[in-house]
Design brief:
The structure is a single chain. About 20% of the residues have low confidence. It is globular and about 125 Å long. The chain has 29 helices and 26 strands. The strands form six sheets. The protein has an eight-stranded mixed sheet. A six-stranded mixed sheet has the order 14-13-15-12-11-18, covered by helices on one side. Strands 19, 20, 21, 22, 23 and 24 form a six-stranded antiparallel sheet that branches. The protein is an alpha+beta fold. Helix 10 runs antiparallel to helix 11 and helix 22 packs across helix 24. Helices cover about 40% and strands about 15% of the residues. A hairpin with a 4-residue loop joins strand 21 and strand 22. It starts with 16 loop residues before the first helix and ends with a helix.
Amino acid sequence: MAFTNYSSLNRAQLTFEYLHTNSTTHEFLFGALAELVDNARDADATRIDIYAERREDLRGGFMLCFLDDGAGMDPSDAASVIQFGKSAKRTPESTQIGQYGNGLKSGSMRIGKDFILFTKKEDTMTCLFLSRTFHEEEGIDEVIVPLPTWKARTRDPVTDNLEKFSIETELIYKYSPFRNEEEVMSQFMKIPGDSGTLVIIFNLKLMDNGEPELDIISNPRDIQMAETSPEGTKPERRSFRAYAAVLYIDPRMRIFIHGHKVQTKRLSCCLYKPRMYKYTSSRFKTRAEQEVKKAEHVARIAEDKAREAESKARALELRIGGDLTRDSRVMLRQVQNTAITLRREADVKKRIKDAKQRALKEPKELNFVFGVNIEHRDLDGMFIYNCSRLIKMYEKVGPQLEGGMACGGVVGVVDVPYLVLEPTHNKQDFADAKEYRHLLRAMGEHLAQYWKDIAIAQRGIIKFWDDFGYLSANWNQPPSSDLRYKRRRAMEIPTTIQCDLCLKWRTLPFQLNSVEKEYPDTWVCSMNPDPEQDWCEASEQKQKVPLGTFKKDLKTQEEKQKQLTEKIRQQQEKLEALQKTTPIRSQADLKKLPLEVTTRPSTEEPARRPQRPRSPPLPAVIKNAPSRPPSMQAPRPTSQLRKAPVITTPKPPALAAREEACTSRLLQPPEAPRKPTNTAVKTVPRPTSLVQPLSPSLLPNSKSPREVPTPRTIKIPVVKKPEPPNKLPLPTPGRKRTLEVSDEEEAEEEAERRKERPKRGKIAVKEEKKDLNELSDSAEEEDSPDLKKAQKDKGLHVEVRVNREWYTGRVTAVEVGKHVVRWKVKFDYVPTDTTPRDRWVEKDSEDVRLMKPPSPEYQSPDTQQEGGEEEESVVVQQAVAQQAVAQQAVAQQAVAVTDPSTSDCVRIEPDTTAPSSNHETIDLLVQILRNCLRYFLPPSFPISKKELSAMNSDELISFPLKEYFRQYEVGLQNLCHSYQSRADSRAKASEESLRTSERKLRETEEKLQKLRTNIVALLQKVQEESVVTTLAAQHPDQEGWRWCGCLGLIPARPTDIDINTDDELDAYIEDLITKGD
């Protein structure tokens, strides 16, 4: 259907508000600036200058300018700029960055409200003005863009409509910063050479405080994000100089910011031990399928045009028939030539379609380059480029997601072509999220292979980083600035720099004086100390990156089944851990709880929910201190209460009232009425373990929390002569205490639960005595010094050797035996799925060593969440272990009840498991403060440790803390100064020894050279005297000889000895000796 048939239909219109809407795609402001840099690179520019010009009359106070020496634009090219979505760069084989025809508009409108463009090409000068201010003040809804053009030499207007040209220039003079033609022409003069482009953005966007988003004042050599703290922010997110340095994977264009050159980087040349892995996959098909569809559509249209032209040619040939006139022949020849041309084009389009269809079936190959960033180890992750342009940076993959030290500091680089992945319009992400996740997964697998290949973990991660000056346990701390560490890092990574003339990259040889050397902005090949690369005509040396091999573990069917079973088991354990309220598996477990468990709904208001503990295990001094009674009953799910209900027998009212009146500060009320006894029972000594209630946060499935009634404090008569009815058994020496519930214990408790199901509702005195014996046994064992000391090891970061390789992990459980202490270590990362994630090891074995903990700031959000789950499981395990202590407290209170008929109140000793006031809390804090002060007490402090231990709270209040910390700081400074002075003296001695050795070496070389010269001269003279005499006697009449008064007949021209090396000299002397013999 002809185009004229559509002339009456409606057209889509573009309003000027779309200019702002289109700019909102740039969430990252530096991405908008990079769009203008990309345009200069696509125009084959060799230099771009980004600078600011102060204009206080404009919003923001300055104009941002982008000046390049690229190909420029003629009037037709400039007119295509204002067509949204039109781009001449969009070809499948294109290596240019721009593809959508939108970057200049969206990028400039994100930075400011208005921009003006000046460009030169082929004796024409064109100005393009796009202004939202103009549209707002004039009230115009459509987008109007003035586009005047002048001749470069005569400055005459290039137009057929002078009135239109006059209106365009008047709008520019009115709404732009340039008020007349002279100021406009001065901007054209800033463009060097005959071609180039200048883009000026003004009326910049402001923040809420009225300041511009871009900060050009803090650093005159840089453009920074305003109000962005350097703490916790990657440098590329804060500094445009840092972002521009890594913007391209192979930078050729020089970038200047405020007149100072950006030291661009080729990331693969800035890494320690780089290695390349070739990755092939058939998964990336989305972009290729789109190209195939386009090619099929274009080929079909070209085929239809060719057939139509051939049909016209045949019809015209039949119609002309025998007409041989000139006009007929010319007409027929034109139609036939058109048909031939269209057929050729159709054939070309068909070949392109076939090639793309074949390419769709072929796997795509990518090159992954990995290396260690020894200059800044906290700046690690994957840098993903698209057609040499940076899209994503610092992407964590594979082992880096786990947050440990495995693969920490490793940087990966990959360049993805358009046919593999297509970027979004703002060039900050990829359009196909599914294929992008597949790419990250593949990079994670290859990253694990690289980590294994460079064998850092086998030699020790901490030792590796210590060698390069990372002496702090904080991962984000920079390396040491000591000269020896700087030299160590500089020796491993050679300096690569770009020539300003030929734009080739040169690798400089390592020199001691170049460690802290600042290279000039203008560097040329002639400054290269390497004689083979000190001229621009020398070819650029390619970086030699070793090729690695990805070794995929081929698993058998049994291994796959085993791995699947293990994963199912782990998921079930996680599900059970989330569903657990308390490890109640039998009626006996309910009795052991330090809280009242009942199925009756609570009538009291619930107390404030305590926070779940997230910190490592408490020190022994705090852990063994008395605790407050729990403020809230731990809730339990209804399902578990059905499995193990509490069967209680109603008490006589008199007995219940008497017991309530005579009980003081008990953790739980009496469980059931007991048989009265005639003799008082002495309570077990005060326990030293901390009795903690289970936090409601550990019981996620609870729905009906119940409260424990607040116990009342009353006076209790003291028993003078209590006698115990039976003796409690002593703890077995060889018995072990484990801080976590093992699978064997779960099986035993399951069997116990099955046995006790038919006995529900019965309470036997023998079982209570047995529980009492076990509780006292476990409580006394837990109070043992070895177990207390071992509990402090939980949470330590260690390295464990497994199959001759070292892996990092964390101690999650401790087991104390008779002669050995065992640790359960949970690994941060293991390379294969068949290797267990945790392992029991002996504490003092050769396969275990301590390491510095990684900084929590290094962990990603996923890692912090995973660590939180681990901490939650550890807290549950601690709560299970602490139930034994709670049982002892229950037993103490239970066995203290005597016959109510002998007295009105039962005589028991005061319960010490809960404080009656804040006095014990103050005593605990005083004890903690004394321990801290004694531990860090300076050597010459006037108060001794013995005196400090005897201080009470009033004396500690007047303790001279200021003098204490001053002496402590002075002691630390003296220690550091001694280490520093010792290191400086050793460094000076080494430097002096090095200078002495170099001086002696030079003197020896001079003597050797002088000796070599004398030997050559001596040999020359010996040759002339011996050889010439012999030849004169043999050939007296031949030409070429002359008579000498002292030597006789000698050659007319003595032969010179050509000796250049020591080897040639030795060979010549041996030859003379041989001839002499």
